[in-house]
Amino acid sequence: GDGCGHTLLTPHSGTLSSKNYPGTYPNHTACLWWLRAPPDTSLLLAFGDVDLEPSEHCARSFLLLADPQAGTAYGPYCRNAGPASPLLVMNSSSVTVLFNSSSHRSGRGLLLSYATSQHPGREDRLGWEQALPHLAVCFSVYCPAGCKGIDGDIWGNPSQGYRDTSVLCKAAVHAGVIADELGGQVTLSREKGITLYESAFANGLHSKRGSLSEKRLLFHRGIFCPACHLPLPACGDMLEVAAFNASSWWHEVDVLGQDRAWVAERAALGTSGHSWAAEPSSEVAWLELDLGTRKNITGIITKGSSEHHDYYVRSYQVSSSRDGRNWKPYRGSGAQEDKVFEGNSDSYGEVFNAFIPPIAARYIR
């Protein structure tokens, strides 16, 4: 219906909102979502926001949930008659969600997330916690699919951590610990705040540069920590490249007649001066990295060449190989199409993209 806003639904979790959320929802609209979980599981619904203009018995703008298996209904809900709890545990694997509006003046509308009973957060935490003052130093939360598209700010970056007022699950996507199209369990620790959180563009999201907060959030994965019974950060070392190769390279002759070779070896991230560039007439260009042996590759950082020329790559695809002859395009978990990564928007900033799941290979293109 024309009242539908941001929507990402998967069999195990998802996120949905009314149109224009968190701005005022439009007049005379309706949207019907049908949520279905795998058999023998039940649905957990988390109400992030139910802000519909009040009316008697919520007769004008309303939210109504129906369980077709049990023949039960929940609601109607509006501002003066909202859900009794922010978390609703269903007794079935199917539910319909109806959002309806008539003429009104105010209201943000609806933000709702869900997960199956296979994936509840510790203490059944699910969804949109932002500030978390009541939680322990180490904790775990389940983030539903679709967090990337919700409204709200994040401050920080994957290496420094995030200000604790950042939208939690959105920050998890930015940090690359979950894929937005899948969601997943995230483990965090609360650490002392820092003076300045630097901004970063990562996994298709911009974070903000911000000042000191009392606490910061660090996302963890990889190695188990006996002290807090949670995983610690996986090793973040840069992989060494044994050799570079490319489809072509640019042999530049500058205005003084001097040669400059933009060869593949100059593609290493820390190289001073100019970078690699393909021959300008090249239609299909690729850069190949030989890691020497098979490695576990969890992400990639790209940067343009800010010296002499304003060059950068706006989007790219990734392929991997174990033998350098047979290549497999990267698609991500459950995807049917080759993934297109969002790259740089200038020639000097670094952009990080995570591989979820990681790539196990010797060669990367």
UniProtKB/TrEMBL annotation:
Residues 228-365 form the F5/8 type C domain. GO terms for molecular function: signaling receptor activity. Residues 134-217 form the LCCL domain. It is found in: Membrane. GO terms for cellular component: plasma membrane. Keywords: Disulfide bond, Membrane, Phosphoprotein, Transmembrane, Transmembrane helix. Gene3D superfamilies: Galactose-binding domain-like (2.60.120.260), LCCL-like domain (2.170.130.20), Spermadhesin, CUB domain (2.60.120.290). It is a single-pass type I membrane protein. Residues 4-117 form the CUB domain. It comes from the Eukaryota. InterPro entries: CUB_dom (IPR000859), FA58C (IPR000421), Galactose-bd-like_sf (IPR008979), LCCL (IPR004043), LCCL_sf (IPR036609), Neuropilin_MCO_CoagFactor (IPR050633), Sperma_CUB_dom_sf (IPR035914). Disulfide bonds join C4-C31. Pfam families: CUB, F5_F8_type_C, LCCL. This is DCBD1 protein. It comes from Tricholaema leucomelas (pied barbet). The lineage of its organism: Eukaryota, Metazoa, Chordata, Craniata, Vertebrata. The gene is Dcbld1_1.
